[in-house]
Write a structure and sequence with these properties.
By secondary structure, the protein is of the alpha+beta class. The protein has eleven helices and twelve strands. The termini are far apart. It binds zinc ion.
């Protein structure tokens, strides 16, 4: 055999120098940066709140809490290699740099972001019923005008309740049919605050009627972090390429699992408990509960939001 080598194959690269456990020498050291960048990008995507979503064949109701549509961003939605689901979101940097995600997966879309209160009731793994939750509403261009027009027409979107129906898989994830229902008065809106207790006893409170701090939700990714995230194709033979070759052999890391584990540990308090605790935050009052129940009846069998669904622990 001649020693003429092409690009090292995955196996030879990984096994050079003995045990495949180890990354050694320059490759090992270079990998540190790649790993940091990849984790950063994955974490940024991971830390985002759940997005409002309508399963095919269902209708879900939500209330917008923003005054007006004000936050737009080019974004990519890619398949999460770990779960096979299309729930890996990342900002696109094409406006000021070559975007590795554009190169790998095609053009990004122009997304409009709003905050909404999702009135879909769901049950946690511990059997607690959650009546509403705050979600990030990502509106694609074809539906943006609907919200912009409404904001222009009535001066504010805040409190606008919409019924979102999705008939087909091909329709928008937030529903193809978005129907305005009514405006929820500010006093009622302010009661959408929920509290729950973590396993360690820590109390968490989410003020669902407050707009997300978008600036802190979306961290500007670097070209390197996006490259690491999508496993782009750097120059053959470069340190980045070698790292990529090696990475392909690895199991995906378990950051996604970490988040789900954290979620699992949350024990939802019911509202009575919260009141006994002397919670100063306002809880949803009877009137609102009745409203929610009416909605539930309309929806027949409320299912837990799919993205909240727990996987059994391994
Ligand atoms: Zn891009």
């Amino acid at each position: 055999m001649t020693m003429r080598s092409k690009r090292p194959t995955k196996k030879t690269a990984a096994k050079k120098g003995g045990s495949r456990l180890f990354h050694r020498g320059d490759e090992g050291r270079n990998r540190v940066d790649t790993e940091i960048e990849r984790q950063k990008a994955a974490r940024a995507s991971n830390n985002q709140p759940f997005r409002f979503y309508v399963p095919v064949g269902e209708t879900r109701t939500m209330i917008i809490v923003d005054e007006k549509p004000d936050v737009f961003m080019y974004e990519h939605n890619t398949k999460n290699p770990r779960t096979g689901k299309w729930n890996l979101f990342t900002p696109c940097i094409k406006e000021w740099d070559n975007c590795p995600v554009c190169e790998e997966h095609g053009d990004s879309y122009y997304a409009m972001f709003l905050t909404c209160i999702d009135l879909t009731e769901f049950e946690t793994s511990s059997g607690q019923v959650v009546k509403f939750s705050r979600k990030l509403l990502c509106v694609k261009p074809s539906q943006q005008k609907k919200f912009i027009r409404r904001a222009e027409k009535v001066g504010s979107l805040r409190g606008s309740m919409f019924e979102c129906t999705r008939d087909k898989q091909m329709e928008s994830a937030i529903g193809g049919d978005i129907e305005f229902m009514e405006v929820i008065p500010e006093a009622r809106l302010r009661k959408y605050v929920r509290s729950w207790k973590g396993n360690d006893g820590t109390k968490h409170t989410e003020t669902c009627h407050e707009v997300f701090d978008y600036e802190s939700l979306f961290e500007e990714p670097t070209r390197e972090s996006l490259m690491a995230l999508v496993g782009g194709t750097p120059t053959p033979g470069s340190a980045a390429q070698t790292a990529k070759d090696l990475e392909e052999e690895e199991e995906p890391d378990d950051e996604w699992e970490d988040e789900e584990d954290e979620e699992e540990e949350e024990v939802w308090e019911d509202e009575e408990d919260a009141e006994e605790d002397g919670d100063e935050e306002e809880e949803v009052d009877e009137e609102d509960e009745e409203d929610e129940e009416e909605l539930d009846e309309e929806e027949e069998e409320p299912e837990p939001a799919p993205r909240r669904r727990r996987r059994p622990r391994k």
